[in-house]
Description:
The protein has helices at about 35-45, 80-90, 95-105, 110-130, 135-160, 195-220, 230-240, 245-260, 315-320, 335-340, 375-395, 400-415, 430-445, 450-455, 495-500, and strands at about 70, 290-295, 310-315, 335, 340-345, 355-360, 375, 415, 465, 475-480. By secondary structure, it is mainly alpha-helical. The protein folds into 2 domains: about 1-60 and about 110-225, Serine Threonine Protein Phosphatase 5, Tetratricopeptide repeat (Alpha Horseshoe); about 240-460, Serine Threonine Protein Phosphatase 5, Tetratricopeptide repeat (Alpha Horseshoe), CATH 1.25.40.390. The strands form 5 sheets. The protein has a two-stranded antiparallel sheet. Strands 2-7 form a two-stranded antiparallel sheet. Helix 2 (about 80-90) runs antiparallel to helix 3, helix 6 (about 195-220) runs antiparallel to helix 7 (about 230-240) and helix 11 (about 375-395) runs antiparallel to helix 13. It is globular, with a radius of gyration of 23 Å.
Amino acid sequence: xxxxxxxxxxxxxxxxxxxxxxxxxxxxxxxxxxxxxxxxxxxxxxxxxxxxxxxxxxxxxxxxxxxxxxxxxxxxxxxxxxxxxxxxxxxxxxxxxxxxxxxxxxxxxxxxxxxxxxxxxxxxxxxxxxxxxxxxxxxxxxxxxxxxxxxxxxxxxxxxxxxxxxxxxxxxxxxxxxxxxxxxxxxxxxxxxxxxxxxxxxxxxxxxxxxxxxxxxxxxxxxxxxxxxxxxxxxxxxxxxxxxxxxxxxxxxxxxxxxxxxxxxxxxxxxxxxxxxxxxxxxxxxxxxxxxxxxxxxxxxxxxxxxxxxxxxxxxxxxxxxxxxxxxxxxxxxxxxxxxxxxxxxxxxxxxxxxxxxxxxxxxxxxxxxxxxxxxxxxxxxxxxxxxxxxxxxxxxxxxxxxxxxxxxxxxxxxxxxxxxxxxxxxxxxxxxxxxxxxxxxxxxxxxxxxxxxxxxxxxxxxxxxxxxxxxxxxxxxxxxxxxxxxxxxxxxxxxxxxxxxxxxx
Length: 506
C-alpha cells in the first residue's frame, strides 16, 4: 500500500465495504483522527487524489481497447505473443473480461469499480467530519467543495461504465439500474442495491452544483491537481451533454469559457525534439498549459499493450481523420497527430519509419507518474459546439450554427499549422456539421477516455475487431452489435462476491 499521510482511526469500521475493496488496507502506529480542515485536505490528497504522487494512477487502462480507435496488429514476435493473450478479453468484449485480465497477469489499472468506490469513501469521510474539525469557514468550504466535486466525478464515471447510457433508446432512467449510491461513511448492516440511473444522475448534479458554489468563492488557489470551479463547469457541461439537456450544457460550458477561454497553440510548442522518437517538450496536460483544468490520472505506463510492441495500435480509420505533413516547415497541418501520439519503429515487422503506437505521453523529459488525462478547456469548446449544433438541428436557428462554427474553428486554429486559414476553417450545415463536430471530438480526445462514452451516447454503433492470437490461428472478426449488451461493462466478480444484492449486467 502506498504511504498514507493521514489515517482516520474510526475508519477501521468502514473497512467492511459493501460495494468495493477495502478503503484502508493496513493501519499505522501514527494513526490519528483529523482535528482540522488542513487534516481533511491531507486526507483528500492521500485517499481521493492520486495524480502527481502515485505510480498507481491508472484507473482504466483498457478503455480505448473497447473502441474503434484501436486495431490489433499481429506479428509473430516473442515479446508480443503474451500481450495478445493478455488483452484479448477486452478487445473482444468478453463477459468475464476483468477475471480473464487478472488470470492473464494484468492487475494494474483493472480495479476500476473498486477504485472509484474507494475514492467515494474518502469523499464521504471528509464530508461527514467537516463539522467536527477546526478551521476557518473558507478552509472548510474549500475542502467540502473538493469532496463534493470529486464524489460527483466518481459517480459520473461509474454510472457511465456500468449502466446504460442516460439517453439509451427504450429505457426508463427512473427504473433502469445505475450503481449503488453510498453518500455516508457510517457502517451499515445491509448491502446496497443498485440505485436507478436517474437517482445517480440527480446525486451527481446536486454534488457538482453545490461544489461549484463553494469553489467559486473558496477554491481559487487550488492547483490543477485539485478540484476547482473550472472542474465543476466542465463536468456539468459534460453531464448535461450526456443527458441531452443542450441548453444547460451550453450554459455551463460558456460559464467556464468566460473564466478561461485559452488553448495551447500547438504550433508554438518548441520543436527542439522534432525527431519522432521524442515526445514534445510541453503538451496540453503540462503544468503550464493554459488549457489545463485538472491533471487527473494516467501516466507514461498507461499503454503497455502498445508501447514498443505495436500489438494494439491506432486504427487506420482514426489516423485517416488527421491530415499531418511531417517535415513541412510552417505548414504541417493537424499537429495533434504529432503531439498527441507516441511514436516508434516496428523493427520486428521490418519497419523503418516512425509510426504512432499509442496515445498522449508525458512531455520530454519524462515524469513517469505525471498524469496524461484529466480535464481541459478544449472540452468546453467541443461540448458547447455540439450542444449548439443539436439545438440548431431542432429549431434551425442560424445563430446557433454560427456559434458552433466559431468554437470549432478557434479550436482548430490552435491545433493546425497552416499558411492558409482555409485549411482549418469549416462552414458546414445540417447533419454534416454534427458529423464533423463528432469527428473533431474523436481527433481531439482520442486515447483520452472519451471515445467509449461518445460511442455509447451516440447510438452505440456496431464495431468490428479483427483478432489473431498466434501464427497458426486464423484472424477472427468479433462484432459488438449496435446497442449490444457489452456497451455496458460487466460488474467485476470480486464486487459481486462482496455484495450479494448487486445485480450483474446482462
